Amino acid sequence: xxxxxxxxxxxxxxxxxxxxxxxxxxxxxxxxxxxxxxxxxxxxxxxxxxxxxxxxxxxxxxxxxxxxxxxxxxxxxxxxxxxxxxxxxxxxxxxxxxxxxxxxxxxxxxxxxxxxxxxxxxxxxxxxxxxxxxxxxxxxxxxxxxxxxxxxxxxxxxxxxxxxxxxxxxxxxxxxxxxxxxxxxxxxxxxxxxxxxxxxxxxxxxxxxxxxxxxxxxxxxxxxxxxxxxxxxxxxxxxxxxxxxxxxxxxxx
Length: 253
Description:
Elements: H1 11-23, E1 28-31, E2 38-40, H2 41-53, H3 55-72, H4 81-98, H5 104-123, H6 139-142, H7 145-155, H8 157-167, H9 172-186, H10 188-191, H11 196-203, H12 207-210, H13 212-243
Helix pairs in contact: 1-2, 1-3, 2-3, 2-4, 2-9, 2-13, 3-4, 4-5, 4-9, 5-7, 7-8, 8-9, 9-13
């Protein structure tokens, strides 16, 4: 019998997870260290969705959740469509790919593309004509350090061997550690969406002050979010494994 749904995941599950992501967009989870906003609860759940539904159904659920979030909490997507893609679609897609040890390269490409796109837009396009001042060196180069660290992790055995194995472990400590890494790797491009240029533009900060955001603040916020996401996701994965529900292809439970 042919597999129905999206990537083997029932449409009802995709709709359910999309609704959960949309509803939790209004719940603060981690407040920005630099002030002015917060990381919503749904951001902590997005990689988990890609691991439960598989990468493609997870991406669709993320898109549904993002659209709902855009309607009920428009301030969470100030960047419009690019934010919708980077914040809601990419993390579950990348998480699903990272969980499969043979598909690290697409996840790596996704993360690198997201980072480059976020650094070029709006620094160099639309650039100074739209009020975005190109950051001076060494601040622009420094802002890459956290993503470079993630790339190193992805191309080493830690990324393509150990993390996928930890995700499938029945040991809750290893599983949680794997989930912490997955959030960190799958969401890093999205986290860098609020780059120093955006902060400097919206809050009219000097470039040197705005450089603090991707160099120091975002790595701290991202680390806290990674740990919180792993602690939330690990018992959920464990419960699904014991539930007796039909397993979805490419899911880790």
